[in-house]
Queue: 3 jobs
Job 1
Amino acid sequence: MKTFFKVVAPIIGAAAITSCEVKPPTMAYPDTKRDVVVTTYFGEEVKDPYRWLEDDKSEETAEWVKAENALTQKYLSQITYKQGIVDRLTELWNYEKITAPRKHGDWLYFYKNDGLQNQYVIYRKKADSDKEEVFLDPNTFSEDGTTSLSTIKFTKDGKLAAYATSAGGSDWRTIHIISTDSKKEVEAPILDAKFTGISWKGNEGFYYSSYDKPKEGSQLSGMTQHHKLMYHKLGTKQSTDQLVFGGEKTPRRYIGGSVTDDSHYLIISASVNTSGNELYIQDLTKKNAPIVTMVDNFDNNSYVLYSKGDQLFIQTDYNAPNQKVVTVSAKKPKLAHWKDLIPETENVLSASTAGGKLFANYMVDAVSKVYQYDLNGKKEREIKLPGFGTANGFYGEDEDKTLFYSFTSYIYPSTTFEYTIKSGESKEYLKSKVKFNPSEYTSEQVFYTSKDGTKVPMIITYKKGLKKDGQNPTILYGYGGFNVSLQPSFNTANIVWLENGGIYAVANLRGGGEYGEKWHTAGTKMQKQNVFDDFIAAAKYLKKEKYTSTEKLAIRGGSNGGLLVGAVMTQQPDLMQVAFPAVGVLDMLRYNKFTAGAGWAYDYGTAEDSKEMFEYLRGYSPYHNVKKGTIYPATMITTADHDDRVVPAHSFKFAAQLQHDDGGNNPILIRIESNAGHGAGKPTDMIIDGYADLFAFAWFNMDFTPALSK
């Protein structure tokens, strides 16, 4: 099993602008106040008229949010087929969903949703029985379904469990400890955990990560600096919890800890950015054993996968940008003693363990290939997968004879397979019950050329028989950052888009991890424009090849992808008809002033780094590049009031600036969800409403009427 939990800052030459005379908008936007606020960077003054919207505790901000939401809902209510979209999404969502089981003690635990439940319920059954029972129902955590389960961890013997909850999508967590026999809490919850894992030390207690509450600003927007790895001993008060690592001596680090499966070692990771980590080890079998340094810099990423006796198995990109697996003795754990076990290849590796074997999951042009190795590094076989897509799983305990993995693609609903480790045979264990016929659709991979000649992959999905006449409504999705790889996965909501003649295209932009650290680095700091150029080139390819046209193209992305959309729509506003920047990082001069934003500097750089970096960031920062009189595409910005990852002020300020300066008649709206965060843990009804509004807004502004309305 992958035992180590790594915490990082959680994630996340312009073309000419088309201008015209300023026209009165077709909508009456709220009269948003503009302040005289100026910040000086390296002798240059930068105006920030909407700084006041950063105050998420003010009544003035609350009234602005209320007015903007009222306008957005009024606009969406005029779309006559919107309810038809809601009805169709609800029909498609209403099927039983079950995840692969995991064994803890005498029980098999799995998640199940009977169809339209807001949150998945944890069930369990004995391994030799079909009789199942509810173990934990997150739908009871709050009346409106907005308090969600973020993680649950069991002790090795399965007698105890600790689970973390999130209220309204916030990154702040509350950890509850329960007896698995009685299902009742055994003591008071742990409060104010954040960016945390949970890792048990036997049945005595567990490690978790936490911050002190911000001293300035609200808990949802104030900067958090001193991350701490804590140890909680059962039966004691949280106020007596032991600080294991971090705190004021290590500011702006993101710290996680995990105990190896044999309970022998505590592994600690400390990161200052979204890439690179220090690594430490402590022998838990010896009282007051020192914490020993394994890696003393942030130049590489390293994770302890597994331990067997004194031997540690580590996945790392040290001298291997595409990752490799190494081994080292815990008695001499420093880098100088690491020995290659599974060498680096031309494809990016993600490794795991189960049943005393290693599993190497490679990305080959963003899709999966998986191989099984023994602990000596000998390749035993390639695991035959169902097709062109993404495989996940391949982890378990030492004693496991079988494991479960999932397989999915844009047209292959997620299916669970049971794999016999000794024979290498896979058999279907759980098939999705969604009403979708993959044989009616196609998903093809193409490679297009970006501005500087780089070849970039893109997967284009649509219904068979589609005519390439430039008239097909198309959503182009991208991310391009933080080493995140966009691998094929099925999304029930996309059925509605595809079955109505739509195209869904996903571009694997630089800044992501699809081709390793070099691909990632090529989209960071002073090379960030590569990401935007890659996305622009993807849009141009779709139009050139007659999949779609400007009038039928929407671009979409969230978080760092929201930055992507914001930058592209301000650089080339005539490229698309519709833009959906979601929970985006849109003020690049101040992103590092909120919550954990300082940790994103590895990808972005900051305005304080240098005059050159400041000018580069200002050159593409969406908020600072809205131009008076420019015709912008129909835009619906989306955010949420409890987003403490990318605070909603980014979206508020961008929306206000666009509404003030837009010179066209396209709607510029912002949709602000209540009791929701960056995306995780949203209840089902909120997810359905969100997609219905998105599809309705896109089709309406593309002058396209879906068949479901006829």
Job 2
Amino acid sequence: MSQEPGPADAQHDQDVDTTHAVPVPDPASTPEQEIAIEQRFVDRVYARVDVLRGEAEGNRDSGYAHLAATVPGARYERDVFVFQAARRIADLDSQHEGLVFGRLDFDDGKVRHVGRLGVRDEEYRTLLVDWRAPAAAPFYRATALDRQEVSRRRVIRSFGRTVEEISDDLLNEDAGERLPVIGDGALMAALGRKRTGRMRDIVATIQAEQDAAIRAPGRGATIITGGPGTGKTVVALHRAAFLLYQDRSRYEAAGILVVGPSAVFMKYIGRVLPSLGEETAALYSLGELYAGVEATRQDRPEVAAVKGGTVMLPILRRLVRQTPPGAPSELRIVYRGDVFKLDAAELAAARARVFEKEPRPNLAKTEAGRALLVALWRKIKPVIEEAEPAKFSRDVGSRGEFLTFLDHWWPDLDPADVLGWGGDVRRLASAAEGHMKKEAIEGVAASLRETDFSIPDVALLDELRILLGVKPQPRGRDRIRSWDGIQEVSTVQDRYYDRPERQARDAFYEDYAHVIVDEAQDLSPMQWRMLGRRGRGAGWTIVGDEAQSSWPRPRESADARRRAVPSGRLHEFHLTKNYRNSKEVFEYAADWAKPRLRNIDLPEAVRETGVAVVEKTVAADALLPEVAGAVVQALAAVEGTVGIIAPYGRHAELADIVHDGRVTLVGPLESKGLEWDAVIAVDLEAVAKAHGAGVAYVVLTRATQRLTRIDLA
């Protein structure tokens, strides 16, 4: 098979000549002639891919022909054969669009083409180099100052199998006499294209500083920082694809976890990895990292600040020790004709003794039964002197009424139920005594009485899961079955075509090989604790910008991050170019933010549009028609998407003006990581007051072309 799917082939790219012969360049060539040259090469690659796909289909069909196999070893071989063939077909299909996107012309006249995957010709010579292979690195890292023997870099943009556009960067001025140079540069062309509501991959336009971060070692912690629009998120996603390519057996087996701030954000980035041919990474928002919960509700900032803080740790520990609602307050046992009782105080004392020996309630039921028997024995012994403790324990401990009482007095506790206890102000006040003020108690209790969970609640649920005690589960392999002691791989239908959209690992999985955290500056200490459990032995990629933070106590969060991320080698990368915002938009945002934010990181915006930011101030009763008018103007001015970012209290009234599929209404916190061609920022001062200047700064940096700010008089 001629595809280059893994590290062995990456090494191959280092060891053999990855260039190939093409027509001698003519510096006088027209764009049409150059496109025709690239079209011939693209046709050749696709023809080869068609052959490879046909071979893979033949292999798959041959495997299906052995469905009647009954010997376990034959079944194993059949299923592996079919699975590998189907996987190869899927890889070829997923990378079909824009398969060839780059070309390098070297000083010695040789040419190397770069694409979404590697392809070799009939004689096993490299025809197309995978973008993640070492041989492709010069496509991203070569500059005029460090050319790496590259004379010209060409980006090829296709639709289907048809080359539509090429764009060249001449790195060696002396080569201009022999190489035609077409277009104005691929990066600027890509930045000017309309947004579609989904993040796109950037394999054709990765810049040198981004490429260095993408190719950093997988072990240890990689920190990627940079201001708005520097491509931190998309770099992190391409890094996941690179790690899978570099060491697929490790990262596919143990898994890569990608965590983002919101469900809106995860939907926005959801197609990037599949577009790169990778579908094995697990993508979760912070509101989804507890199995069975998909939280989207945002708490009021003051409530979120309490729930996310380490102050919740002693409160939760006290909460799990409270007597469950509805638990019986008296135990009555008849023994040898006498009635013996344990009252509420004695039961409370017995409960306390249980927690001295086993602090996790769901693992302490046996200890709870023993504590009740000990308390009863202390009452029985003085009355019935001849009673024997062992016989007493066997007799009473096996009675139905005793076991029923034990089940009600010491039930198995669910984290959601225990967190719900906090909705009772008296219970929460008892647990929070000495740790939380009255106003905070009332605010948190009110939030916990809501019918759904908020995003900060998810970290509390996960903490309670650990505090209550997780019962050991046998670790099986869902995709491996055993027949007469021989393990057999499941069928390709099970492993590939029937695979759910998400990775089979549920939200509690804790053995990831790598964890990628985006918008890390916003994580609360409790959220860092939750993530730390899932990456105890993992490598980490942490992406963020402190200036955009919504968390009010950065030192507390930084300390929690240090505890969550295993100590090891640290790789730090700082991105300096803003590729999202026009210069006009970013300079406006920077001027607003500089006096309000300390140590702000201001990247350089790389393009101008000539469109100034529009500012308007209106009366409250004129807000709705003004925003509606701004939306109409934006839709007429841009081909792509329009975002309305407004305080949460304004969403009900503004929802009535969202009729076009290109328009999205989001809150300030959900806007993180997203971008639109045009943005209408509503009541920015209210956003800053509620969530901090960092979040308002985020709002001002979401537009790629046009920004309109509408404030209240």
Job 3
Amino acid sequence: MTTHDSSPLDLKLAALETAARLGEGRVTEEALASARQVVERARERRRLSADHTVVGFFGATGSGKSSLFNAVTGHPLARAAATRPTTSEPLAAVWGADGSEPLLDWLEVSHRHQLDGPAAGVEPSGPWSRLLGQRWTRKNGRQSDGQHGRTNGRQNDQPGGLILLDLPDFDSIAVRHREIVTRLAGQVDVLVWVVDPQKYADAALHREFLEPLAAHRGVTLVVLNQTDRLAEADVEAVTASLKGILAQDGLARVPVYPASATTGAGVEPLRSAIAEVAQRRSAASERLLSDVRTAAKALGAEDAGGVPAGVGKADEARLVDALTEAAGVTTVVRAVQRSYRLEGGRRTGWPMVRWATRLRQDPLRRLGLRRGEVPQRGMNRVSASAADDPRLHRSSLPERSPAQRAQADGAIRAFAEVTGAGAPDAWRSSIRRAARSHADTLPDELDQAITSTDLGAGKGSWWWHVVNALQWIALAAAVAGLAWLGVLALAGYFQFETPPAPDVEGFPIPTLLVFGGLAFGLLLALLMAPLVRLVARNRARRARRRLRAAVSVVARERIAEPVTAEIERYGAFREALAAASGRH
């Protein structure tokens, strides 16, 4: 088991895992499952031997795949036949067996042959011999010190191990054979596709395997086997035709090796290519990087590259305006204005007619919004405070009309459409869901926002007390004048001698008190009425601002912030995809 520092592959795997997590519910389940599988498979492959390169031989029935496998290994390991599938289970040729068992167990390859060097007849020279014949070379050309990995007391710079797999035919009539090929095509480090001159253009091979694996061209080799069946002049033409078809599959730069397992022609260049790949020990990482890029591409298949518009101040303001109206704020504002006018009339109007205003119910009290008053008799202040707690309090606003509900729904939908404009359809849908994530509780939260807002109910104006005092003084003067005149009239009726009432400029003071008090009170009431209306309008405007601010908090927390979070999630998803696919 080997450990790894943070490498480009580690970073891309983490980015792919992040993208899959962020894409849950937004990306197709098939793409998500594929990404998770890639991450899991990559981590398992890296946990196992990183010193071995696994090369799989894939081919159709009759392509000579097993014969080529034997020719490349230099050992008659695989059973070969020209007319029917002979490989029913994966077969492994292993050089450098130490540490390979867990890897082969993971590959589910039970048929294994451990080889120490090239077979008889294979020249022990060149890269193939240097890679596969280390033990053979030590045994036949040098003295070993008996310690693994050391020769003549010096550290041996031995390349990593190699595992060649002979696999069942991908076009076998046995379903299990095809399942094995499909599974191992996603697990091996290097893919060697063996074709023959008769079926190199087979549609099943190109459509079902080569095209989907085009992203793995860096770890793909193609062998045109059985060239001994072609005239020497035709080999180049068929090879060129095969390269053209591969280019259409997206594999333009994949090397093609003409070879013949029967004559041995072209086998040595193929051995060298495999040996070179194994010596680099990077095939596994290259394969996994290709898997990550492919999975990232699938996750972003529906991403047109657009950027959502995002939440703007104007968009949020329009949403708040619509919710303000839908929540019945206008009704509350009117109630605040009427409540102040009613209370102002009671405090500054002519005392003789104030009783009539008491027949009219306070509109804020009718809506359940008049709080902060002195506790009623029999109610202690703790009980009054609990009654005023907005969390325990609901308004008595009229039930939202269908038009108001439609207005709120339309505003939320419009907000989601505007802010999500530019995002792919799946993410626009998720943005719409985010905008409506609190739709069920939104009416109650708006109602609570209204009830918790200080509307200034119960708070009068300082000048009310002055006017009220003047009204009562004027009324007292009028009452005193009437009482004086009454005493004078009663004394005259009983024939009592009374001094004449004092006068001012010929007008008796009792009369002046009566008419002056009444006139002053009525005039003061008339003069105060416009002032009361003016202040009522100011109070209403202040209440609207406060209520709108309260609605704005709800709109931001329950609509704007979830939408913003979803848009940020999409941005993080795109960044993770870009990191996984290597775009930055």
